[in-house]
Amino acid sequence: SSELTQDPAVSVALGQTVRITCQGDGLRNYYASWFQQKPGQAPLLVIYGKNNRPSGIPDRFSGSSSGNTASLTITGAQADDEADYYCNSRDSSGNFLRVFGGGTKLTVL
Amino acid sequence: QLQLQESGPGLVKPSETLSLTCTVSGGSISSTNSYWVWIRQPPGKGLEWIGSTYYSGSTYYTPSLKSRVTVSVDTSRNQFSLKVSSVTAADTAVYYCAREDVGKMGAMDVWGQGTTVIVSS
Q1: How far from each other are the two terminal CA atoms of chain B, in whole angstroms?
Q2: In a mutagenesis test of the B interface, which of A47, A96, A99, A105 is the best target, namely the one with the most B β-carbons within 10 Å?
């Protein structure tokens, strides 16, 4: 079983704000990174570290963390944001291993 | 621009060994700020981190696969590889290689396109 827990599915109305969460003990000590995956495509890094966006990622994507929960927020969701989202972080034992959350399917209504 | 490309057989028989290679272009696999990673995704399921390697040859494996997995690096060819032994249908998946950037707190910022491996007789 995954050490990072995500809600399986979340929906948001077009243009509204949605938060996708990821819970795990390791998140008390390590930041999560977030990936967007569309059908048939490789995952795309959208957030890493405290709240950093790789080049080309729209600023409507942001990240935050509190306690054992990391969050990905999309402010003003677009139809193109409909995808699966995965969090990833270090294994809670703090070694070089990494784990993924189970993924959240985001539907934009 | 760094690019990764997976290659290897798309069909493997049960009990045999799955072997894949990831070729790194546009950068050096000997970069001191990069770890090289394998991830897989079974059909209709989520992502699974398999293991990683550093150019020095250090390796790290997820516990559930550690007994069957070997990740290795070939700096002369700018490639790294994955071997999974004694495969079963449960190993059927899209296999991705990726780079973990130390400068981005280990985030996997560059991915290959993925290669589908089916385990079937």
Answers
A1: 39
A2: A96
Tokens 């990622």 belong to residue: A57
Q: Do A49 and B105 count as a contact with CB atoms less than 8 A apart?
A: yes
pLDDT in tens, A84-107: 999 999 987 767 899 999 999 999
Name the minimum distance, in Å, from the CA of B76 to any CA of chain A. Answer: 25
Among A45, A99, A100, the residue with its CB nearest the CB of B107 is A45
Give the pLDDT mean for B72-98: 98
What are the pLDDT digits (tens) for B6-61?
A: 999 999 999 999 999 999 999 999 999 999 999 999 999 999 999 999 999 999 99
The string of DSSP codes covering B6-55 is EES-SEE-TTS-EEEEEEEESS-TT-TTEEEEEEEE-TTS--EEEEEE-T
Q: How many Cα atoms are found within 13 Å in the side-chain-facing hemisphere of B24? A: 25
Cβ A35–B61 below 8 Å, yes or no?
no
